[in-house]
Design a protein that fits this description.
The strands form 3 sheets. Strands 1, 2, 3, 4, 5, 6, 7, 8, 9, 10, 13, 14 and 15 form a 13-stranded antiparallel beta sheet that branches. Strands 19-18-17-16-24-23-22-21-20 form a 9-stranded antiparallel beta sheet. Strands 11-12 form a two-stranded antiparallel sheet. The longest helix has 16 residues. With about 375 residues, it is mainly β.
Length: about 375
Amino acid sequence: MKLSSLYCFLPTLIVSALQPLDSQYSTTKTIPSQTSNNTSYANFISSKFGLDSPQISSVNASSWDWWYFDIISPDLHASLTIVFFTAVRTGFPYVSATNATTVNVIYSFPNGTVSAIIVEASEAVITSVGQGSSGEYVGTGVSWVGSPDMSSYKITMNSPQNGLEGMFELKSSAAAHYPCAGVRVGESMEVVPGLGWSNAVPDAVGSVDVKIKGSEMKFTGAGYHDKNWGNKPLTSLIGSWYWGHGRLGPYSLVWFDAIAANGTEYVSSYTYKDGKIIAANCAATGLQIRPVNSTYPPTINSANPTGYTMVMDLGAEGILRANLTSAALITPGGAPRWSGSLMGSVDGGEVIEGGVALYEQFTFAV
C-alpha cells in the first residue's frame, strides 16, 4: 500500500477503533483533565455494543463528549441534573476553560433555590460494558454505574467537602434509541450533522436521596439519561435547539428540534407506549416545537419563552398536539432549562392533562 493511501485510511481506522467490536464487549478509557493536541475523531455510526460509551477519540480544544442525567419531582418543584463533561470551553461554551473533566450538579428546591456546584476531576475513567457505561471522575467523589443493558443507573455523590452527598437512581421504563430509530447496528447517531446523540434512558422511575450544601432532597419522579458528542465546537454546528422529555398519560416522549448553524432545521421525535417504541424518526413532518411569547427562530437576544407548543407524529396513534407550560426555571443563564406541565390530545380527541416535562433551549445565533 502506498503511504499516501494509508493516510487516507487513518481517520477510518481511528473511528473504527471507537466502535466496540462484537467480541470486545467491555472497554475502559481514561480521559485526562488536560486537553490533547491530537486530531479528535468522532463516531456517528452505531454498532452492536457501546451506545453509552465514549464516542470521540480524544478531547482536544474543539471536541466534547458528555453524559447527562436528570430527575424531576411530580409536583415540578424540585429537580436534580448531573452532567459529566469531557470538554473545555472552546469546544462547549458552558464548561471550564482549562479542565476537560468536570461534573456539573444543578439543582432546584421547592423553596425556589436554584444553583449549581461544579467539581473538577484529575481524570475520568469510563468503563463500557454491553450497551451501558460507568464513570469515575477521579478526585470528585461523584460517579455513576450503569448496567450493561441500560436498565438501571446509579449516581453516587460522596463529596461532603463540595456539599454533595447521597444517591440518585434510575430504573428505565422506556427503550433506548438513536435520533432516527430504535437501537440497531449501522444506525446514524447524528441528530444534526456533526452532533451525536444517543438516548440510553428516555424515561425512568427515578429516586433521589441526597444532601446538597446541607439541605435534603428526597423524592421519586421522572428520570432521564442521554449523551451528546462532537469533534467540532458546538457553536459552529448549532444556531439553536429545543430539547426535552416528558410523560403524558400513557406516553413517554423525547424531542429534539434544532437549527444548524447554516439555518437548516433538523428534528428527532420519540414516543414509547405499552412496552414498545411507537414512533422514532427524523422526518421533517414528525415534530415541530415552537416558543410561546418569544421569537422564532430564537437568537441570543430573544426573551425566554413562557412555554412551547408541540406537534408530534405518534405513528399509527395519530398526531399529538400539546402545550408545555413552564413552572420553574431550573437552570438559568445562556442555556436555560425548565420544569413544566404538559397537556394535549391526539387527533383532537380527549385532552390528556397532568403531564410533566423537563426541557431546555440552547441559543448561539445572533
